[in-house]
Design a protein that fits this description.
The protein has helices at about 5-15, 30-40, 45-60, 70-80; strands spanning about 20-25, 60-70, 85-90. With about 90 residues, the protein is an alpha+beta fold. A three-stranded antiparallel β-sheet has the order 2-1-3. α2 (about 30-40) packs across α3. The protein is elongated, with a radius of gyration of 16 Å.
Length: about 90
């Protein structure tokens, strides 16, 4: 790969905007269910991290689940919402 092509590729990667997937607290789902849903949705989460996210959302009202490019953020948010959780995305 030429140096010029490597530079363009690096620039594109750096310019890709990231979005936060935010989990919001609700009074309808059990804490265990939320953790299971987080683990099913974002396969890079460890059980400990999923528990931490769940408790932060429970105690403060919301928690950042992950920060990813827009398309992935939309996918994760839709998956969480499909499980009956409340999630949104916003720019990092």
């Amino acid at each position: 790969m030429s140096t010029e092509l490597q530079e363009k590729t690096r620039s594109k990667k750096q310019l890709t905007p990231k979005y936060k997937v935010i989990l919001h607290n609700d009074d309808h789902n059990s804490v265990d269910y939320v953790v299971v849903c987080l683990l099913k949705t974002v396969n890079t989460l460890t059980p400990k991290k999923a528990i931490d996210i769940m408790w932060e959302a429970h105690n403060t009202g919301c928690s950042v689940v992950t920060v990813v490019p827009l398309e992935m953020a939309e996918f994760y948010s839709e998956m969480l919402n499909g499980f009956g959780l409340t999630s949104t995305i916003e720019p990092e």
